[in-house]
Structure formats: structure tokens, C-alpha cells
Amino acid sequence: MPDRQRRIAHLDMDAFYASVELLRYPELCGEAVVIGGRSVHQPAIKSDGTRKFAKLRDYVGRGVVTTSTFEARALGVHSAMGMMKAAKLAPEAWLLPADFEAYRHYSRLFKQAVRQIAPQTEDRGIDEIYIDLTDLTQDTQTLAMRIKQAVRDATGLSCSIGIAPNKLLAKIGSELDKPDGITVLSMDDVPTRIWPMAVRKINGIGPKASEKLTALGIPTIGELAKQSQAFLAQHFGKRYSEWLYQAARGLDERAMITSSEPKSISRETTFERDLHVKTDRAKLSDIFTRLCVQLASDLRRKGYVAKTIGVKLRYGDFRILTRDVSLPLATDDADEIRRAAGECLKRAPLEQRLRLLGVRVSALHKKPTQAEEPEAQAALLLG
DNA sequence: TCTGGGGTCCTAGGACCC
DNA sequence: TCTGGGGTCCTAGGACCC
Prior knowledge:
The chain is of the alpha+beta class. The chain is 38% helix and 23% strand.
């Protein structure tokens, strides 16, 4: 139990992927730019040396918008929107393929820069981290400005920071003054600044819970804070209702998680058109093999073996089905993974067309080194 | 032409063991 | 033969996040 006030920061990079692309293509600054789709619309170099970019209206396929610049957002284009729909809203927007290699590179740079100042950080994906400032001596505003400057020096990019007594409020805070902002929240700010907000603003209340709460006449966090534990327990599970009760009051005791091991690794692909096992057998088989080979290579690169292998199907109507199986011995071998995943596939109904096929491994263990292999295998066998 | 890909955590039932 | 409780693993599905 923390017996003193903590100082937790949440740092969120501003329009991260789009900003990385603008570092590379500064001539697109101030333009509506959309990032997404597969790596086809790579900019070409024209004879006069300038770059030729694809227009969003040229896009054909089933991709979604990964992110977009503020100028594109002003036209109604947002993350997770279908690209074809986005193309109708902003046909003249520039289109760039996502380059995750580059984003991971800048992600490493900004995280390293932050750790030079505050070593206690928790990864929250490629463009966010929590930072524990509790043990640092400088005042909050100074620390926040130093961190932002360090990120800018290391990457040329801006970020927004929220600082609060816990992760829940810090996360909300980082959204309040975007881009390039600093927001400090204390518990005293909860009634005035948090309660007027929609319940959806709480990290952990998604589309389903938000819709359910609104239908119950609880659209805001303030309304949520008026509900009794008993009322919430009637409509949500025990754990979730207890969490809702605390979150509405800005209470959150979750500790910083400064290191963690992966729990699962997966590869999946959405087909250009829906495929059927009967008529597209060879194509599906090739894709299936490719996913297993990629997964085996992911495991080896990261140094893990997996005991549980599974498949994921998405049918043409968007229903999802999963099947998995646990092996007696953990593996990182593509053939073994394919065999096990193939067994899973046999247990799935395959009458309907498929939109997506995925393969997933879980129950991961660090791969034993050569020397300790027999003992480690024996230990796994004996449980 | 609506709706990607890679993750985490939770729930819940059944098997199996003590 | 009946009764029972706890713990762990396995499997499937779903909500949610970036």
C-alpha cells in the first residue's frame, strides 16, 4: 500500500505516426495526410527530384486508417475508419503506408530520453508511457518541461503529459491539453474537471460499457459517481462494478509495472476478398503456412518457446471463432506449429467464407539455453 | 466495396487431482 | 457409497487498448 502521495505522469506522443512521417516528408507539413493500408503507396521520386505521393482517392482495399494529421481529422477522417470511407470524405488527402519499423525506432528514442531523467517507466505501447516521478526532487512543472524538452531533442517530436496521484488520472490528464501540453491534476480537481466528462473518457470503459451506462441514464463520470456499489453490481460483474465505483472517484492504486514478459504472440491477415476452403484451398494453405513460419521466426527472434497453439477465424459476417490446443512440449518450430494449428482448424466449422485467418501462440517460456535444455525440458514435462 | 493487426485481462465451465 | 471443498489447468469467448 502506498502510504504517501504518488506523482505519476502519463506521456502521450502527439499524432505519433503522422509526426514521424512529417519528419521524413516535411513538404507535407500543413497538409491532410492519412496513414494506413498495405505497403503499396510508397512515394515515388519524380524526374525533377521531388516526391510524388499517392492520393487517398487512389486507394482500393479493405484497410483502415491507422492515423491521420490534424488537417485530415478536420475533414472527418479518424483512426480505425475504413479507408474507402475515408477516401470519400477526403479524396485529395495524401496517402502514406504505415512504416512500423520507423515508428519503433522513434519509440525507442523517446523512451530512452525519458529514462535519462526518470528511470521508472511503464510501457503502454509504441507511443505512450507512464513515468513515476515520486522519488524525484524537482517540482512537477519543471520535471514535465525537462521531459518534453528531452523528447524533442531526441526525436524532434512533441508530446503531451498528464501528472496526477495515479495512473487513471494521469492518463486522462494527458488528453486535456493536446498537442504539446502539460496538465497537473490533484484529487481536488475530480469534481470540477473529471465529473463533467463522458464515462468513455475513462481508460477501461469502452464502447460496450459506455453504451450500457448511457442507456442506464449514466452518461458522465459524475453521474457514475452518484451510483451505489449495489446498483452497479446489479448491472456489471463483481470485479468490474467495484472498479467502476473506484474509477468514478478518481481512485486507482495500481502499481507501476516497470518490466513484463510477453504472454502471447500472434500473426493474422485479412484477405483481399473472402475465401472459401473449398474453392480457395491452395491459397488458404499458403497463407496458413506463411503465418506459422512468421510466428516461429518471431518466437526465435524473441527467444521464447510456446506450449499452446491456436487459430483465429473471422467469417465473412465478422463473427470470430478461436480454437487452441496445448502441446506436451513447448516449441518454436514452424512445422510443429502448423501441425498443431491444423488440428485446431479441423475443429472449426468451415462451410462459410473466411475474411481473416490468424495463428497465435501462448503459454510462453523463455527458451532454455543449450546447456540447460535437458533439465528444462524435464522440468516442463514433470510440471 | 463499411470495419487492420497485435496485444492484455477477465469470465466461466469442465477435467482432474488431493 | 455418498458427500464436499479447494486448486490448477485447459479451452472459448469477449471487452478493451494502442
